[in-house]
């Protein structure tokens, strides 16, 4: 439990907020004093976890601009303000190259991961503008910073998220609205369960991470709270990579191991 209550009196809108990173981050915000308005495709007992006095839930498909606008409107109507937008809802693409990727599925991945941020920000920023202050945090990914085999639509969506964050940060800096992204590496969430179902896949994945483990969602969530808080008041247009050292590698093999510890 936070002793500072950084978000006392603040309202946080969270997408993809009933499981994984979204749910854990919602819990962290509530512990830090916020009221949270959670949207997702399913409720998944999130209100019993957070407490109905601290949270509200609405079903919302973030790939729909109308759903996004009406959800933001309902949040402001219920709580009277909107201080933080955390866009976390995502879909992982099927493993396919561009030739084999279904066009409709490609569009769905882009709509959920990237366009959802656009739709929600378009609806939320006017309210933040009237308040003279606001923070937007998006869940991007290391997959938005480099390419992955077979994840062309997910890579495209997350790379677009990174640059949309930069663009919005520039456009709204003088309005007191900060826009940033977190770029998680491998996280232990329901979305990545397939990687853990096959031991050889899990082993191969962990072998590429210098810290040799995946992230607990709360490790990412704490970074989201930092970026949304006044402690990050001079930070905007940034992507915070949280990946156990994944993106620090050049791609070269470990020469220390190959040469038996000899330089």
Provide an overview of this structure.
- This protein has one domain (11-187, 215-245): NAD(P)-binding Rossmann-like Domain (Rossmann fold), CATH 3.40.50.
- It has helices spanning 20-31, 46-50, 65-79, 103-131, 152-172, 193-197, 199-207, 217-228, 255-258, and strands spanning 11-15, 35-40, 55-59, 84-87, 134-139, 177-184, 239-242.
- The protein is 43% helix and 14% strand.
- Helix 1 (20-31) packs across helix 8 (217-228), helix 3 packs parallel to helix 4 (103-131) and helix 4 (103-131) runs parallel beside helix 5 (152-172).
- It has a seven-stranded parallel β-sheet, sandwiched between helices.
- The termini are far apart.
- It is α/β, with parallel strands linked by helices.
**What's the CATH topology name?**
Rossmann fold
**How many strands, which pairing sense, and closed or not: the largest β-sheet?**
7 strands, parallel
Number of individual domains: 1
Tally of alpha and pi helices: 9
């Amino acid at each position: 439990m936070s002793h500072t209550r950084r978000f006392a009196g603040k309202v946080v809108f969270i997408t993809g907020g009933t499981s994984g990173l979204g749910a854990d981050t919602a819990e962290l915000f509530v512990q830090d004093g916020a009221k949270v308005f959670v949207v997702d495709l399913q409720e998944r007992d999130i209100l019993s976890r957070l407490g109905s006095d601290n949270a509200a839930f609405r079903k919302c498909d973030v790939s729909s601009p109308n759903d996004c606008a009406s959800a933001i409107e309902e949040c402001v109507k219920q709580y009277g303000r909107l201080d933080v937008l955390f866009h976390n809802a995502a879909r992982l693409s099927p493993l396919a190259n561009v030739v084999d990727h279904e066009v409709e599925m490609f569009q769905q991945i882009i709509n959920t991961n990237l366009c959802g941020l656009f739709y929600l920000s378009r609806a939320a920023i006017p309210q933040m503008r009237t308040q003279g202050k606001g923070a937007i945090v998006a869940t991007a990914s290391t997959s938005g910073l480099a390419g992955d085999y077979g994840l062309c639509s997910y890579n495209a969506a997350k790379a677009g998220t990174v640059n949309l964050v930069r663009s919005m940060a520039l456009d709204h800096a003088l309005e007191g609205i900060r826009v940033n992204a977190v770029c998680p590496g491998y996280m232990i969430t329901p979305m990545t369960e397939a990687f853990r179902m096959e031991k050889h896949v899990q082993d191969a994945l962990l072998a590429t991470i210098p810290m040799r483990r995946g992230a607990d969602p709360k490790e990412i969530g704490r970074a989201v709270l930092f970026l949304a808080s006044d402690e990050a008041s001079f930070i905007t247009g940034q992507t915070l990579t949280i990946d156990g050292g994944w993106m620090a590698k050049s791609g070269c093999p470990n020469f220390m191991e190959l040469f038996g510890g000899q330089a």
